[in-house]
């Protein structure tokens, strides 16, 4: 079981902090809320500084420590703290964080004394913008040293969050520099951590609201070779904080029953397929594994006997270039390998490898079996994590890599093979370059926006806020996302505004339009193929209707003026009904006549001839000579009447003649007639 | 809903989200059409390979591999294997030169079974006798085995509606001009009818794919005949790369990849800026493969069991519908939420992918990972111009070494993601990394733990390796360098073992197969003198000269750790206590249940049995151990 934690929040409410107080209220209440659910025994106190009033024991005892107010003494978490944290008073004087720390340390010492072994933590949120008071004796640095020493003795940790938004003109950089170095001095001499925060969103993520005491996944040897081992401990570095699992609620109990639990029990019954009335007791069940259509029963004992049982251990397979391991192959949440705490030799060995890997751009490949009896092995990549803080040893991150079975090697077309219309031109590429450069979330000299380490989960934020709301007002609605959380789900309007010209240019360079080939009614179908439409199963009806339409769209059922030959061939090739051949020939006939009749100075002749060639081929294939011959005769006759001799010559030159008996049995045209047909036309004119 | 918490491979943190378990596709029906003409059997002569494998062998090998992976991961898909250019015939239409291979208890087109895999594995030995190879298209006769094969395949694929299934023919051949020997009008006629047959099949929603096999010196020319058959347009013709075939291994690799059908997970909209949104398809290229789901059986009859779940009100005992309210205990009260409210809480975005900005790649830390990534590739199906914008951004991101940060508002897991552009990488065996972007799911601050500081020793400066120690480590790294390491080069030994056992059991084989664990370190390589020396030098440099001796001393002086001592003491006292009871007598008289758990545990500890579980479990464990 996790040890109890005693936490004292030291909150600066002085004037420079006012714009941040709403977020501070939120993040602190969430912290307390989570404690009330997950660590009910933890204790929390709140000390404000920068207040008009003064209220702390030290003032009464020794004097000084003005404008430090104990809002709530340290005690077990309850709803009142949340209430208090949600309406923090706005202070009127610049706060002195060092005074607040001293008051905080004093409270903890008085409450617990040196005997209490639980975790003790101070959490300071301040702008550290105002000069701090000079101590009665010695320098500020000496005072910090003295406090730090006391904290070390008591085992008190300090976590400082320095909040500075847009700095006003008045801000004194010298003072801030001094304050920062004082806080850093804490970090060097005691267990303290300092974080700088610029935006409200980051502030929400900067304070860890849930304390999970980490457990090792593995303790033992990292085996470079059987003769060279390093003692390491392995922890999880990332693990998803899941949405809380809520209990099912039964409203069946009468409202008068004060002792009702409202719980719901879930019962499972197992029934054979053929006899739905016979219930099989759970212990009579046996596990069956699918192998194709077969289900192979294997009892737990059998399974235990035959399953893969690797030996516990973490072994090095080798080193390889960083570039050999693509980032997207990381499979799971991440582990961290640290040298066995207190083991100087192990720390040195890890440090040497970490630094060597960093320098050479190498990573290590490991094979891990975390526990004895674990039924599988893990192969993964170890990457170096060089520590930038003096008292924190170097460590490794470990990411699981996929096995051969886990990778699907789909082939995708190369972008270079795409048609030119899909390739961006120079100007477009330029616009994209600008967008990628300018829409910058990590501008130099400024805070990196949306850094994972400081970005809270908006869903969880929302849940805990609603939980508090509902505890007071059961029918409260889900509140909309506030602006601070919207910075996570939507682009920052300020960033967009700053880069308006770049964005406008980008939009101007590219043209997007809906694909005209897909009719509106089909969109849904295309979007949700039956296989993936699990989310909205309600649309089955429209889907089927659309599917029918789609089929008719995909198939050609008339000959258009634009691509008559392709249409004709497509129709001739249709096999769903014989009538398409007739329709195609008829349509083509009509089109050809249409083209000839409406021709002006022969501008459609080429097209007509192409159509006739296609028609002839089609009629030959389908052995329908009569249709073609009739049609050709009709056209030639028309030409003769209108004295369009040039067309007939064109036909003759392309060998578009009547279909002969030799070509198709049904034809009654002989070779001679076919040949002379077009030639004969001329004398017929006279 | 997964009702089984004890599934052996499944970690407790596995995501129940469908998207990650690969059940995300329609059923697929495939007919493998394998050319069995004598040409397929002629050994291939290549410089690097002296085994003289034939194209037939390669094709059969690929199919066999594919069947084995299919029965594991996509066992609902159906498959038929059909040879053409055979001397014997076996098909429903009774057409010449076509042989449909099948085994007992299975339809021609059906799910793969253990027997099919086993018998197909030995097909090469039996082929000559049972099926026989013979050219099916010879001048002088109007026989057309290719036509027949397509016809048979089409008839096999008649089942299943085109809307819900995906039907494919995969044609393996090394003859790019099947009608090359035929002359005159017959040739044109045969080509025409064959093409028409193929087209008819395609009209019925069956896609025909060609898997060409070729000799190193002669190229397989698709344009001779097959381009028309599979309906390649001009541009596609250029894109259709025949396997380079420099190495046989490469050709196998390439074939294997081509046999896969790309499956899209879903189509998403990517909002870039100012209402400009493009269309992307997402693909799950990397997902953990787990042993198939467990089906509970009645151990007496081996009949599958249905699980029925019922909800019972704990206060009244009334049977409930699935309750629509959920509660969270807070401040001592039940705070109620409706299912709709919970869904609403999770709906923090519109469900699209929304661009937020760009960062340099160095900002993407190694510990920003939670789940396998998802691949995105542009599509112009609905919105023309999507691909163009995507390529422009992709090239900029590659060149400027930046990644995009976006918010992916899926309904179950709204999350920040990093979009990392991946340049196309090809090798002699085809595409290794496709071009596109990988969507990496980023953790929130709530998901990151600060473990490094946990054991930080305050006040003292932690030791850091000296330059010399780092140098020794570098020397070691150079010795133990895996030059061509590629992720996924290892098969998962647990999975292989599991399926090997299943296959053996399914076929009633007595002997359990041995599966090689490829993930073990290369002991031979590690014992090379150079490596041993480098290791020794590194060891001396970080640990000092007499480390092993010191360790031994430390061990012997302490013989065992405190915890072990304590454990030993407990065990000893348990043995002593245990002797005070007559267990057999207690068991026979049913008085075990009168003992306390502590007393029961004396027995268990003394006999080295597990101590977990409730009292009944402990008792039954003792009874089992006593043999009662």
Compact overview of the structure:
The complex is a heterodimer of chains A (686) and B (628). By secondary structure, chain A is of the alpha/beta class. Chain A has 22 helices and 19 strands.
Highlighted features:
heterodimer, A: 686 residues, alpha/beta, Rossmann fold, Ku70, Chain: A, Domain 2, 4 domains, seven-stranded mixed barrel, six-stranded mixed β-sheet, disordered C terminus, B: 628 residues, alpha+beta, 5 domains, seven-stranded mixed β-barrel, five-stranded mixed β-sheet, 35% helix, 19% strand, disordered N terminus, ATP-binding (chain A), double-stranded DNA binding (chain A), ATP-dependent DNA helicase 2 subunit KU80 (chain A), EC 3.6.4.12 (chain A), helicase (chain A)
Strand count, sense and barrel status of the largest sheet of chain B are: 7 strands, mixed, barrel
Residue windows where pLDDT falls under 50 for at least 5 positions of chain A:
519-554, 681-686
- Gyration radius of chain B, rounded: 32 Å
Instruction: Give the overall shape of chain B, derived from the CA principal axes.
Output: globular
User: Which structural class is indicated by helix and strand composition of chain B?
Assistant: alpha+beta
Number of domains of chain B: 5
CATH architecture of the largest domain in chain A: 3-Layer(aba) Sandwich
Mean pLDDT of chain B: 79
Q: Which radius of gyration of chain A do the C-alpha atoms yield?
A: 40 Å
Structural class of chain A: alpha/beta
Let me know the number of strands of chain B.
20
CATH topology of the largest domain in chain B: Rossmann fold
Q: Name the largest protein-protein interface in this structure.
A: A-B, 223 and 234 residues
Largest sheet entry of chain A: 7 strands, mixed, barrel
β-sheet strand percentage of chain B: 15-25%
What would you say the CATH architecture of the largest domain in chain B is?
A: 3-Layer(aba) Sandwich
Oligomeric state of shown chains: heterodimer
């Amino acid at each position: 079981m996790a040890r109890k934690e005693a936490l004292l929040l030291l909150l600066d409410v002085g004037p420079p902090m006012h714009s941040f107080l709403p977020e501070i209220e939120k993040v602190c209440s969430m912290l307390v809320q989570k404690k009330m659910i997950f660590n009910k025994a933890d204790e929390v106190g709140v000390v404000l500084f920068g207040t008009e009033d003064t209220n702390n024991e030290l003032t009464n005892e020794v004097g000084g420590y003005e404008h430090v107010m104990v809002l709530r003494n340290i005690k077990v978490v309850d709803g009142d703290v949340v209430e208090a944290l949600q309406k923090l008073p706005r202070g009127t004087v610049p706060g002195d964080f060092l005074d607040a720390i001293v008051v905080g340390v004093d409270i903890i010492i008085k409450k617990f004394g040196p005997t209490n072994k639980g975790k003790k933590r101070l959490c300071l949120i301040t702008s550290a913008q105002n000069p701090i008071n000079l101590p009665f004796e010695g320098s500020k640095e000496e005072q910090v040293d003295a406090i730090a020493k006391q904290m070390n003795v008591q085992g008190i940790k300090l976590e400082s969050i320095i909040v500075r938004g847009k700095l006003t003109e008045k801000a004194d950089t010298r003072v801030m520099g001094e304050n920062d170095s004082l806080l850093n001095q804490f970090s060097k001499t005691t267990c303290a951590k300092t974080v700088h925060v610029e935006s409200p969103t980051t502030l929400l993520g900067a304070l860890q609201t849930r304390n999970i005491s980490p457990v090792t996944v593995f303790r033992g040897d990292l085996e470079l070779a059987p003769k060279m081992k390093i003692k390491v401990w392995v922890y999880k570095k990332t693990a998803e904080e899941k949405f809380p699992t809520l209990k099912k609620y039964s409203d069946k109990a009468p409202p008068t029953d004060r002792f009702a639990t409202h719980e719901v029990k879930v019962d499972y019954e197992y029934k054979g397929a053929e006899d739905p009335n016979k219930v099989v007791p759970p212990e009579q069940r046996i596990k069956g594994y699918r192998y194709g259509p077969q289900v192979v029963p294997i009892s737990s004992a059998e399974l235990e006997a035959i399953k893969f049982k690797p030996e516990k251990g973490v072994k090095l397979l080798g080193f390889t270039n960083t570039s050999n391991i693509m980032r997207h192959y990381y499979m799971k949440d991440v582990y961290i390998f640290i040298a066995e705490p207190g083991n100087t030799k192990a720390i040195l060995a890890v440090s040497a490898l970490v630094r060597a890997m960093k320098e050479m751009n190498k990573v290590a490949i490991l094979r891990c079996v975390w526990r004895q009896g674990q039924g599988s092995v893990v192969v993964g990549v170890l990457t170096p994590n060089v520590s930038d803080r003096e008292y924190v040893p170097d460590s490794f991150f470990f990411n699981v890599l996929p096995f051969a079975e886990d990778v699907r090697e789909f082939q995708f077309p190369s972008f270079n093979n795409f048609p030119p219309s899909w390739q961006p031109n120079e100007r477009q590429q330029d616009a994209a370059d600008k967008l990628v450069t300018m829409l910058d979330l990590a501008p130099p000299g400024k805070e990196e926006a949306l850094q994972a380490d400081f970005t809270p989960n908006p869903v969880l934020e929302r849940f805990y806020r609603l939980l508090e709301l509902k505890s007071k007002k059961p029918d409260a609605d889900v509140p909309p996302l506030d602006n601070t959380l919207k910075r996570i789900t939507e682009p920052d309007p300020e960033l967009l505004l700053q880069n308006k010209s770049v964005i406008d240019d980008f939009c101007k360079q590219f043209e997007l339009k809906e694909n005209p080939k897909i009719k509106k009614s089909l969109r849904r179908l295309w979007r949700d193929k039956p296989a993936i439409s699990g989310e909205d199963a309600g649309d089955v009806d429209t889907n089927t209707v659309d599917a029918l339409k789609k089929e008719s769209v995909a198939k050609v059922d008339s000959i258009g003026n634009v691509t008559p030959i392709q249409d004709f061939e497509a129709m001739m090739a249709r096999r769903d009904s014989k009538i398409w051949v007739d329709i195609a020939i008829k349509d083509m006939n009509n089109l050809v006549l249409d083209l000839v009749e409406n021709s002006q100075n022969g501008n459609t002749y080429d097209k007509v001839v192409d159509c006739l060639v296609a028609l002839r081929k089609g009629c030959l294939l389908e052995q329908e000579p009569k249709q073609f011959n009739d049609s050709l005769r009709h056209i030639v006759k028309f030409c003769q009447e209108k004295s369009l001799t040039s067309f007939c010559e064109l036909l003759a030159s392309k060998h578009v003649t009547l279909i002969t008996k030799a070509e198709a049995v049904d034809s009654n045209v002989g070779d001679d007639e076919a040949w002379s047909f077009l030639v004969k036309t001329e004398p017929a004119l006279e | 809903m997964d009702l089984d918490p004890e599934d052996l491979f499944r970690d407790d943190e596995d995501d129940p989200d469908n998207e990650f378990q690969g059940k995300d596709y329609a059923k697929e029906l495939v007919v493998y059409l394998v050319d069995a003409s004598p040409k397929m059997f002629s050994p291939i002569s290549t410089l690097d390979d002296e085994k003289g494998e034939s194209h037939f062998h390669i094709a059969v090998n690929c199919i066999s591999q594919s069947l084995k992976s299919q029965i594991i991961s996509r066992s609902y898909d159906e498959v038929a294997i059909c040879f053409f250019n055979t001397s014997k015939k076996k098909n429903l239409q009774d057409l010449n030169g076509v042989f449909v291979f099948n085994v007992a208890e299975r339809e021609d087109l059906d799910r793969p079974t253990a027997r099919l895999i086993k018998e197909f594995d030995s097909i090469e030995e039996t082929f000559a006798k049972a099926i026989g190879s013979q050219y099916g298209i010879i001048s002088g006769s109007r026989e057309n085995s290719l036509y027949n094969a397509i016809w048979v395949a089409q008839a096999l694929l008649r089942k299943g509606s085109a809307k819900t299934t995906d039907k494919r023919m995969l044609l393996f051949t090394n003859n790019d001009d099947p009608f090359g020997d035929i002359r005159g009008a017959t040739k044109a006629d045969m080509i025409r009818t064959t093409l028409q047959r193929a087209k008819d099949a395609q009209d019925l929603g069956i896609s025909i794919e060609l898997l060409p096999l070729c000799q190193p010196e002669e190229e397989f020319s698709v344009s001779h005949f097959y381009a028309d058959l599979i309906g390649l347009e001009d541009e596609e013709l250029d894109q259709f790369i025949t396997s380079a075939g420099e190495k046989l291994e490469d050709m196998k690799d390439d074939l294997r990849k081509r046999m896969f059908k790309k499956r899209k997970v879903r189509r998403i909209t990517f909002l870039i800026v100012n209402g400009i949104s493009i269309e992307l398809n997402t693909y799950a290229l990397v997902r953990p493969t787990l042993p198939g789901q467990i089906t509970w059986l009645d151990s007496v009859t081996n009949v599958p069991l249905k699980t029925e779940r019922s909800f019972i009100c704990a206060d009244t005992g009334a049977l409930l519908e699935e309750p629509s309210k959920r509660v969270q205990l807070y401040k001592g009260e039940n705070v109620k939420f409706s299912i709709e409210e919970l869904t609403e809480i999770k709906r923090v975005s519109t469900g699209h992918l929304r661009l937020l900005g760009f960062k340099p790649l160095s900002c993407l830390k190694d510990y920003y990972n939670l789940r396998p990534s998802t691949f995105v590739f542009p599509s112009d199906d609905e919105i023309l111009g999507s691909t163009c914008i995507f390529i422009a951004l992709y090239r900029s991101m590659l060149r400027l070494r930046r990644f995009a940060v976006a918010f992916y508002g899926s309904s179950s897991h709204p999350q920040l993601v990093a979009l990392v552009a991946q340049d196309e990488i090809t090798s002699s065996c085809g595409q290794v990394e496709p071009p596109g972007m990988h969507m990496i799911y980023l953790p929130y601050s709530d998901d990151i733990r600060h473990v490094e500081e946990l054991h930080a020793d305050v006040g003292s400066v932690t030791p850091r390796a000296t330059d010399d120690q780092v140098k020794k480590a570098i020397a070691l790294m150079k010795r133990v360098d895996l030059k061509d390491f590629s992720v996924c080069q290892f098969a998962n030994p647990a999975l292989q073992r599991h399926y090997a056992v299943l296959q053996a059991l399914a076929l009633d084989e007595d002997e359990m197969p041995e599966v090689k664990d490829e993930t073990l370190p290369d002991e031979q390589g590690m014992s090379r003198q150079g490596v041993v020396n480098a290791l020794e030098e590194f060891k001396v440099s970080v640990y000092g000269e007499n480390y092993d001796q010191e360790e031994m001393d430390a061990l012997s002086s302490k013989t065992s750790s405190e915890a072990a001592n304590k454990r030993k003491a407990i065990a000893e006292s348990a043995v002593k206590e245990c002797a005070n009871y007559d267990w057999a007598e207690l068991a026979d008289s049913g008085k075990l249940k009168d003992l306390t758990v502590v007393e029961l545990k004396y027995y268990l500890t003394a006999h080295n049995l597990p101590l977990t579980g409730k009292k009944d479990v402990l008792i039954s464990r003792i009874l089992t151990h006593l043999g009662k």
